[in-house]
Amino acid sequence: VQLVESGGGLVQAGGSLRLSCAASGPTFDRSAMAWFRQAPGKEREFVAAINYSGGTIYYGDSVKGRFTISRDNAKSTLYLQMNSLKPEDTAVYFCVASRGIPTRVEAGYEYWGQGTQVTVSS
Question: Quick one: which of 3, 34, 52, 65 could link to 113 by a disulfide (CB 3.0–4.6 Å)?
Answer without folding.
Answer: 3
